[in-house]
Write a structure and sequence with these properties.
By secondary structure, chain A is α/β, with parallel strands linked by helices. Chain A contains 12 helices and 16 strands. In chain A, the strands form 2 sheets. An 8-stranded parallel sheet of chain A has the order 4-3-2-1-5-6-8-7, with helices on both faces. In chain A, strands 9, 10, 11, 12, 13, 14, 15 and 16 form an 8-stranded mixed sheet that branches.
């Protein structure tokens, strides 16, 4: 029996999760919700993905030639689990509906941690999500920090981690919003990312600060981490090379900027030019006294996609975390 | 017998042409040249594409673990035709070598028109390139102007065309060069694009002006065209809908900016998120008195790729232009 999945909210994350669900042998994409007519919905319909209309949108979608398979309620009647990728705070609203219907749901990092039973990064705490009704995949930035800090913590123990997050202003297709030619400080100390990492890794001391830069491609993090035990640069490179969903970027291949990291993703043939792995430059790793420094680039549009797939399996009771991660990685072309 | 193709210069255009050659049933990619070690070469080698080293680079490539199949000369010994996608002016240098070896070559629009026997846009003058030794695929901008102006000229006759080109500053992976936060005028009147269109369409009166804007995604052209006969907006939309390698963008699908056009290309699943078709917004087409106005977006990285494929067939004596265009389009997922 395949897991029946619905995707609620068909934007940046929703469309990618839907594509990823279609690649899983153990899942069936029942359909996606459409809020209004646009090219994303038009392409989905052309590809044979079933479109379920949210309240009052059926007529407008049909007027544009979209065949509507049913309502939001109809979708919920026919799924085991939904991935809710609606805009911030809408997920918490929708939760009431999922509760009433007894449907499991995966929320995104835009929601508060309290929306779900557990905040989730597959390689860190898969088993905590087993059989839960509600799981929250943490944000792109929190996912990135968790992947690398967790790996370091498992290997050497992390005494404390500090990170400066240089956040992208908007996603690539946005034409408005965010600074155009300035850098914006955020006066939230710590930025919400540090506490958010601790929803997944409660025992790691993390403090983050964040600023926003005029770029759309990727976030970039600069970290300094005190380890419990000594490590050498080469050992850190080896660790990250062997950490799932982390990619070590060889600088001698002339991949320097985030623009070049994204060009690498395009050349690899990844759909939409996505880079789901957190990218750590090999020459950006250094150790000074007892502190480890490194830089990582985060593709905000796609790094949480594999987490959503693993979260689906976890809430449905699939117990083997490693096996789920392996299945997801293989389907998405990750090492 | 498949056509044996070599790609000389493995950058923005070269890597795309190589991928396109691999998709043709009637062509064999013998290999590509590498100038230095980088991620493009590393990925090509991983994919089993044969790498031929330019002078003095063999050792450096091999030191990085690249298996080198031979020299530039070795590549030329084994091909019927090369696509030369080296930087501007290098093609003219290489021409001497191709002449000495008796190898056919397709040059790019960065070279002067005099480098080749004919300047080429498949749908406008395919047959002019038949059996020629040297053909020049015109630049991305000239290709775009030629596609739409030629279609209008065939249907209604073009009395004269005027175009303002707003050029992208650099390609997406570039991290230096071009204006960052200013718009640069070009004091070349006409800009070289107008005369360049006339190397393909000698009988059409075209005058262009060009400026450079701080964007990396696409060029944009704003055109005004006087037609010999009256046309209605709906007829122009129909014409462009039925013109090969032109795509009419439905604004009611909320595709407004060039960023959204490129997002459409990503969602369509095109490799590298490429958009080889010239994109004309339906709501940007208007007629005022006897003048037609429209706007088109040009993906500078990819629109000339299908032209290179057709040019290969033309120089090799494949006579049926329509058939070649159809084969190329089908292989690349163009309508």
């Amino acid at each position: 029996m395949k897991i029946k999945v619905g995707v609620v909210g068909y934007g940046t994350i929703g469309k990618r999760v839907a594509d990823a669900v279609l690649l899983q042998d153990d899942m069936e994409l029942v359909g996606v919700t459409a809020h209004s007519y646009n090219y994303r919905v038009a392409i989905a319909a052309e590809r044979g993905i079933k479109i379920f209309a949210v309240d009052g949108e059926r007529e407008s979608l049909e007027a544009h030639g979209i065949s509507v398979a049913g309502s939001f309620d109809d979708l919920l009647e026919n799924v085991d689990v939904v991935v809710d990728a609606t805009p911030k705070k809408q997920g918490a609203e929708n939760k009431k509906i999922y509760e009433a219907k007894g449907v499991k749901a995966i929320f995104q990092g835009g929601e508060k941690a309290s929306v779900a039973d557990v905040s989730f990064v597959a390689q860190a705490n898969y088993s905590a999500a087993l059989n839960k009704q509600f799981v929250r995949v943490v944000s792109c930035n929190t996912t990135a920090l968790t992947r690398t800090i967790h790996a370091l913590d498992q290997k050497w123990g992390v005494k404390r981690a500090r990170a400066t997050l240089v956040r992208r202003a908007m996603d690539p297709a946005a034409s408005r919003g965010g600074p155009l030619n300035a850098i914006e400080p955020t006066f939230e100390l710590p930025s919400h990312h540090g506490p958010d990492v601790r929803t997944v890794l409660p025992n790691v001391e993390v403090f983050t600060t964040a600023i926003i830069a005029p770029t759309t491609l990727m976030h970039m993090h600069v970290l300094s981490v005190k380890l419990e035990k000594d490590a050498a640069v080469e050992e850190v490179i080896d660790l990250f090379r062997n950490t799932t969903r982390v990619r070590v970027i060889p600088v001698d291949q002339k991949i320097i900027t985030t623009a070049q990291v994204m060009e690498l993703a395009r050349d690899l043939g990844n759909k939409r030019g996505d880079m789901m792995e957190i990218c750590v430059w090999d020459k950006g790793i250094g150790i000074y006294d007892d502190e480890l420094f490194f830089m990582q680039a985060v593709h905000q549009e796609s790094d949480v996609v594999p987490e959503n797939i693993d979260a689906i399996r976890a809430v449905m009771g699939f117990e083997d975390a490693e096996k789920s991660i392996e299945m997801t990685n293989k389907s998405l072309g990750l090492k």
